[in-house]
Amino acid sequence: MQKKGFAGFILFAFLCSLIDFAGGVRAEKITAAYGSLGGVQLPLFVTEAAGLFKKHGLEVELVFIEGGSRAATALVSGQTPIIGADPSVMALAAGRGSDIVIIASMTNTLPYFMAARPEIKTKEELKGKRVGVSRFGSASDFVTRIALERLGLVPDKEVAIVQVGAVPTRFAALESGAIQATVLTPPANLLAKRRGFTILVNVAELGLKIPNSTISTTRSYLNSYRDTVRRFLAAYVEGIKVLRSDSAFAIKTLSKYSRVTEPESLREAYEVYSKANPHRPYVDLPSIQKVIDFLSRQRPEMAKLKPEDFVDMSVLREIDQSGYIDSLYSR
């Protein structure tokens, strides 16, 4: 009884603190950058669109910075304190000595599809062609190299990898013939399939348990503004709940940010992302190690890096242990 009473007191104190923040007494303005468009960042978009940051006493301005590597640069330089970006970018930054730290996961799989122009039907026909990514070192770059290897093609030798931009830009480049293939996420891949493009690889079926994106900050910001980070994550886990329970609202939000309006593609994309965002967004450390191992092939200095060096889930764990996440799903 004493343990239950103590746990209840902790939850009560936690919820009271959120109510206090929601009253605006301690509200503060911050920016949060994201490096890709589409469903990958959907839980972050839903959190903002549903007004949950404001509910938790924060005025968060979401800012698009094309490419995860640029978002990471903005984080390291202090332009923004929190970003949504892929773990490969975070690992590269940590390997260079940055104090960045991943505090939660977003989409916990790699829901990518390598799409090629209609005239390309086989991997052999992709040899000597150009494959577009957002930026080198980004999630699209990481996934592209995995996909090419699964096709038996050598990146940068048998296939040229070129920087193009975010999903809408890559899709347009694919349509125009400026590139012959690229990796796309739902709903863009569904749109590509309906327009006759060839899907060469379904990366999601490779069984890679690697988060496609993460919520990250710097260790110095976490130490100095731990309460702000806690409120941000409290809003975020509530956003996941909305994403999973309110399909109409989530699809509307996905359409806004992905710039896709086709209902069927949006519905299919929602089915992917509603399952790929667990209500407890912990980071799988063995999967982060796989990212490090992959990057170490081209950057041997990365081998000394460990997931624990740049992953800190202590704030998320505090929120979870308070009973707050359970309370969201018991309503």
Q: Looking at this structure, what is the CATH superfamily of the largest domain?
A: Periplasmic binding protein-like II
Widest beta sheet: strand line-up = 2-1-3-10-4
Based on secondary structure, the structural category is alpha/beta
DSSP strand tally: 10
For the residues shown, what is the average pLDDT?
88
Number of helix segments? 15
The outline comes out as: globular
List low-confidence stretches: 19-25
Secondary-structure element series: HEHHEHEHEEEHEHEHEEHHHHHHH
Q: In percent, how helical is the residue content? A: 40-55%
What is the correct CATH architecture of the largest domain? 3-Layer(aba) Sandwich
Major pleated sheet: 5 strands, mixed
Radius of gyration: 20 Å
Q: Cα distance, first to last residue?
A: 24 Å
CATH names the topology of the largest domain as D-Maltodextrin-Binding Protein, domain 2
- CATH secondary-structure class of the largest domain: Alpha Beta
